[in-house]
Structure formats: C-alpha cells, structure tokens
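Technical note accompanying the year-one report. For the benefit of new consortium partners, we illustrate the data format agreed upon in the data management plan: each record pairs a sequence with a structure-token string. No post-processing was applied to the example shown here.
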Amino acid sequence: MTRGASPPPYAGFATRAVGLVVDIVIIDVVTVVGAAIASLVLSTIIPGDVSLDLPAALAAGAVWLISVGGYFVLFWSLVGRTPGMRLMRLEVRAADGGDVSFARALLRFVGLVVAAIPFGLGFLLTLVDDRRQGLQDKIGGTVVLYVAGRVRGVVAAAVPDPTAARHEAAGPAGEVIEGTVVPPGARPA
C-alpha cells in the first residue's frame, strides 16, 4: 500500500464527541459566570424582589443561543477549530478541502442544532458515512479531519495532500509495513 493511497484522516465519532463535550463545558462555565455577574449587577440596580417572567426568559434564551452560535461560528470560520477540537487535534474544513467561510460555518451551526434536536441522532451519521460526516457536516458542506501532529518525530496524522494523485502517477512512494514507510525495493525479507 502506498502512502498516497491511504484514506484521508477523517475524524471519528468518539474523538469528535469528546471535543464537543469540552466545548459545551467551556460554554456552560462562561454562561454560568456571566449569568451570576449579570444577576449581581442587576440586583444592585433594580430594587426589590424581581422574578423571571416569560419575556425575560425568552430574551435570556436568545442571548444564550446567539452567544453559543457566535462561539462555534467564529471559531470555525476564523481558526478552523474550537478549543475542544484543538484539544483533540481536529479541524473543520470545507468538503473540497478549503477554509470554512462565515456562511458555511453558520450553516454548519444550524446543522449542529438540527442534529442535536432528535436526541443527538444526527451525530450518529458519522458512524456510517464514508467521510464520517454528521448531519451538521452534510448541511454545512464540511468535513472534520485530524490535524498533523508530531509526537517524538512521528507524524500522528496528516491532512491529505491534494496533489497526491499526481505523485502517485509518477510512481510508488513506498510501502507501509507495521506503520513504517519503507522505500521501494527496500522491503525486508
């Protein structure tokens, strides 16, 4: 098997799930701290006993949705990954390999909400799809890949080279034997 013929390192379900959980924890901590600060400030400004009525609850929900959406959309479109994805060495790319635009990131966030609504069933598509795309990836036209990372000089995962097809046509680059690339003609007996 040649190096160029290996499949792209699409991120799996478990790795993506851990990254999402880390992002949710970050969002929840920031939201709780922000809500506590806001309630302390408001309690000093507004005298008396104040209760949370329906319009205030709807406004709080809208602020939360905008802040969560902003978190994901801005990280995906500006950096290509969220802090949780960075921890798990993942990045989101357009399906054609390009960077994720703001519009594509916004579509992906809408897909994330839609994937989560039916008890998270939209995320399970990653288990059966060849490119491990969840519903949010299908809607947003994105893929999630492992980022190239070196651990003691060994490449743990690499982003696929778009010119690999041209290099394959030039001849085999070597053979992978037990995780080591062996040059052509140097195969051990």
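Partners are asked to follow this layout when depositing records. The mean pLDDT is 83.
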